[in-house]
Amino acid sequence: MEQLIPLIPLFPLIGFALLGLAGNKISKPVAAIIGCMSIAVSFVLSVMVFNSQLTTDHPTTVTLFNWIEAGSFKVELAFLVDHLTVIFLLVITGVGFLIHLYSVGYMHEDAAHNRFFTYLNLFIFFMLLLVMGNNYLVMFIGWEGVGLCSYLLIGFWHKVDEYNRAANKAFIMNRIGDLGLLLGILLLFTHFGTLNFLDIKANLSGIKGNNPTIIIATMLLFIGAMGKSAQIPLHTWLPDAMAGPTPVSALIHAATMVTAGIYMVVRSNFLYTLAPITLEFIAITGLVTALVAATIALFQNDIKKVLAYSTLSQLGYMFLALGVGAYSSGVFHVVTHAFFKALLFLAAGSVIHAMSGEQNLLKMGGLRKKIPLTFLTFLIGVLAISGFPFSSGFISKDEILLNVYYHNKIYFYLAAIGSVITAFYMMRLLMLTFFGSFRGDAVQESHLHESPSTMTIPLVILAILSTLGGFIQLPEVYGGHAYFSGFLETVAPAREHPDIALELKEWIILGVTSIVLFVVYYYTRKLYAENKFEGVYSGIKKVMANNYYIDEIYNACINRPLNALSNSFYTLFDKTLIDGSVNGVGKIVNWSGDKLRYLQTGYTGFYMFAMVLSLVIFLIIGLFNLI
Amino acid sequence: MFPLILLFLPLISALLIFMLRDTHSRGIALGSALLSLAAVLFALNTLRLDPLNHNLNFSHSWISSLGSEISFGIDSISMIMLLLTNILFPLILLSTYNREIYKPKGYFSLMLIMQSALLGVFMAADGLVFYIFWELALIPIYFICLFWGGEGRQRITFKFFIYTLLGSLFMLVALIMLYQHSSNHSFAIHDLYAAGKSMNFQQQAWVFWFFFLAFAIKMPIFPFHTWQPDTYTNAPTQGTMLLSGIMLKMGTYGLIRWLLPMVPDAVSAYSTTVIILSLISVVYASCIAIVQINFKRLIAYSSIAHIGLICAGIFSFKAEGIQGALIQMFAHGVNVVGLFFVCDIIQRNTGTDTISELGGIRTVNQRFAFWFLLIMLGSVALPLTNSFVGEFLLLNGIFQYNAWFAAIGGLTVILGAVYMLRSYQSIMLGNNSANTLKFAPLKTSETIFFAILSVIIIGCGVYPKIILDIPALDVLKMVTR
Predict the structure, then answer these.
(1) Entry pTM
(2) What is the per-residue pLDDT across A536-555, written as a single tens digit (0 to 9) for each?
(3) Where are the alpha helices (DSSP H) in B50-75?
(4) Gap from B283 CA to chain A (nearest CA, Å)
């Protein structure tokens, strides 16, 4: 099994290299086959590795070579495969493959089709490195690598300046987080003398809780997670990231990239457990992000923007779970979210495809009958994310809420309100898109069509996964056996909670959720399906619709001051002060030379006079012992 | 043996170029540069097998009354610089292909003389010889800038010449002070080391600052940098490559070879001051790079920022920091030469290097866009590229010195991305401007140049041991002493 492990990232890398070298010399179908097959092979290999991990509790390490070695610093290019890794491997390659497959249909008319698959393969490669590294620095390769790929893919249509700006923003914002992560890594190395996950874990025995070094290190690492997983205040790049083709959004939001932050915190759970303060901070950040993003999503009129903010919000829930110490619940939500968010984005892509590129919800409506399969799958996605009983989203979110309940009741109520808002904006999205009457123009209406099968097959598979995916961790009350958390227990210990009245509470949650969903359904149906909504917002709604003006605030507080500072550095300091004084010294030398020149008059008489004068002066000095 | 070959090969070729016709100049220069590369690779192999091999050293009595010998030595630290010089030289010469060179005889022979002088600086094992080669290197580049440079070159070149000359005069004073203190009145490097250590703190401080001034101007770091952007912008492309790729490493190499081991007390007393200056360089130059409207000037400022981090890493006096500095000097040389070549191609095709007058080049020349992207990624230190290893190790060294310093130096991670990505976007992406509509496909020589460069960028990033392992032991010896 060990030999197979390095092959998992190798195949996407080979795919990337082949596609990159061949460029447009190969036809689109060939490129699509290479692109999809490389991921498919990786997926099969991942399943095999997963199977081998099912029977063992021991992590497998595969070392390729010493990567960086200097002084006492040494780090290997090595892989670590344990229960946490294999879960991510399956999600990345599995959902990743479906997204590749979908892209075959979605991108087939794009001139840069081959380039698209090149980038996608590279993206998967870096994401695999991220979750497979056996130390923080290999993880960091993947970490920055996915940042690069998101940059390339967000700015995929590179002629549009707005997209390029979104790409730059994603990369730079990620880098702000990366600096935090990098400093955290340096601190860990300085403290532990190693960056290997397992070695650090083994060296923790003597360290007590709330050790300041551990707190600072975990905080720094979490700054990295905030950048990559788009948590407030480093979140503004993610809504803009939908500038790329829709499959990219699915890839970034569901299977890869944004889940990196969750992975990193769970991977470092041995550190975070020692730093309750950081965990509390994570929980609060997650909660705030979950709520703020949900309120913003309520007032978005772009189909992809609603989904983008819903991703922020769901990521908030995952971090909330990690913050209360329920690591496996967080990872579980990553998995189910990967299913239903990929489904929602791909279905949204199918809608956009049908609408000839239109993304504005106000121009849609009544699409239910025109694109029935897309509607059905989208509906399943909406139900899952809204927490419809026994859908995957219900089960994973229910588990998070339960864990939050035991941690802090206020957090619980806030999180519960958040999930009601989630149901609301998702239902609104559904109604605006598929119910009511069509609001687009006649040309769009005449072009309405269901997508090709390469696009709908992934939708159907993801819909099934979104429905049934939760059953791997069905609570015991409903007859489940919690396979998932049991499986993860070797990596991240499960949170212990007293199960008094657990059964009753579960049934209450089930009942309340169902009632809330039905209320929301009828309310939104009344509001949106009958076109009784406002397109333009004012007051607090306007603030929410505009992302609380956070972009504008950043612009005013960071971008402009930085530019002004740089400009003053350049013109005031560099040109005037520093270079001015350098030139000034030169001028003084020139000037004094110019003046001294007059002493060389060429008249012998003057020289004689000067000589005598000097002699007299020296004589006087000598006589009176002046020196 | 090796020092003599390395010094004389370029000189003889320069002579040959002078004697033969103009049309042969470029070919001879490139051939000579390749032979030099081969020689340095042989030397590397010898060094690996036996670091004390007598072929790596050369000395001959010279001015015995002064206690100075013509003495050269190749050790693992200078080997990095020799490798850098002799790998970059063929590339720099390759970058002249498909271009009209005015008076090629003079141009190419000056470049080869420059190579000889640079190698001399990196091999010198005698204070006086070091000083002579240090100054010697200035002469060919002065003429290259003066005769082949752009508009206003007289004034700019003159300033550059006087400024760096002034710095070296201070170094000469420091060398004489050390010489006065040496027990047997000798300029040999080990006698000077001993002399430096025997000095009291006050004397060490003088030597320290005099040396530092010379090196700081050469690198350059804040606030001694104002000659640099003008000179880089004005010099011919190859001149800029020589200056930024190799010549500024004379300064950082000088720190490691001459300053750090020479006056240890002063180093430990003033390292914080120097690191602060270097970090100011990093942030200050990065910020200025953000608002540059001229791409060449932007690269010039980014170079100041990168060198600042190297200097800070050296003064952390940790094995990680100095190893990082060495590999980063190598990586920076490669990347900056690549960037200036990119700039050269853009300027040749569009007639401008003003960022706002460009745009959309990617649409007309995808390959060029790819190479540029790759070099840019190297320059922003993405993992698996050469400069990530250097940057990480430098920050590691600085972090061990002082965590806050590392946080400030780390800002380069963000700011570097800001100015590189912004300029890449304005130059390469978006819609075409009138200047970029016609952009010729890359010539074979250009493709070869980029291909070699990217092999180095990725190769050193994936398997950095190939460079890192060379000086490992000597650096360790240096910091533990």
Answers:
(1) 0.92
(2) 777 777 787 777 888 888 88
(3) none
(4) 10
